[in-house]
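Subject: Acetyltransferase (GNAT) domain-containing protein

B.,
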Amino acid sequence: MRLTLRDFTPADEPEVLALFADCDDWFQAATGHPSGPGDVQSLFYALPEGAAFEQKHLLVAQAQDMIGFVDLVVDHPAPGHADIRFFLVPKDLRRWGIGREMAKALSERFPEVTRVHVRLDDFKPGNEFLKAMGFVLNGQRAVLELAPRSDGR
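Prediction pasted inline below.
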């Protein structure tokens, strides 16, 4: 499977809303309520304290169709770090290696990132995925240390 990771555009909103609805299990675990139409618009304004709008990236993972979505903030909480707000894959495509491919595409797109932070919630499949990817779970956070790239990029 060839996966591309591209910037979200307004034309993607219907597909992202459908993905959010399909990932209601995550929304229930993370927020306590199902996703709603305002969730896509609120993504643009949801920034962690101390982050600037320019650091925010909303990314669509696409093969033939949309197969994932990532909300992240780069260089937060420090230079070389990334704060992944969420990372969604449709229910019927989970455990097919798409999350791993999305993570690989993220590391290629942001080679300067050497530490990744994720806020933990009660979504067991997501936490199991983080463990499988090598994240260290610590309380309400998970952290992954990445080795700097040896090719100079």
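The mean pLDDT is 86.

T.
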